[in-house]
Amino acid sequence: EAGVAQSPRYKIIEKRQSVAFWCNPISGHATLYWYQQILGQGPKLLIQFQNNGVVDDSQLPKDRFSAERLKGVDSTLKIQPAKLEDSAVYLCASSPRVRQETQYFGPGTRLLVL
Amino acid sequence: AQTVTQSQPEMSVQEAETVTLSCTYDTSESNYYLFWYKQPPSRQMILVIRQEAYKQQNATENRFSVNFQKAAKSFSLKISDSQLGDTAMYFCAFSAGGTSYGKLTFGQGTILTVHP
Does the beta-carbon distance from B93 to A42 stay under 8 Å? Predict the structure, then answer.
């Protein structure tokens, strides 16, 4: 079974530029999560999708971050414009259903904003 | 809101020995799940073990076991016969039941180094 795929693995941009990350969850997984992991900290949930609907985006900085999950499969997370404090690893995870299911994580995208 | 605290930023252990990582949490929920995730330097987060709060029996997975003290809100991870491949960052995580939709709240992490 293929795992969660993410791309790119690394990205370096200058502040005020825009960037997009892509995630492909495990086949058949209904729930998809985006987490932000700042160096030295635990991951923090940004947004959660159930199929193609958002169920939690309370910690997503909506003035600059956006995410979509078209057709309930792949997802894209965008930052526009980026700030220095957005430097982090962005992790995508998926689980078969909502609630209590184990989440399977992708390798992450490491973003550096200069 | 739930909080998860890992009070040990770094731990080290000799190969083949046993080490225990600590985790405490705070919640008003009665139905919840606790997890330990491992994140090696390659950064792929991997589930180590999970515990359902309604189960009194502590979870075990081969060399990994937990000590779940519900009243004390404590959830420690014991690694027996430590191996070099156990070197990683370990995160304790909490997921509430009910309407939380499975969101994970993570602790700050503990860096574990296994020495030969």
Answer: yes
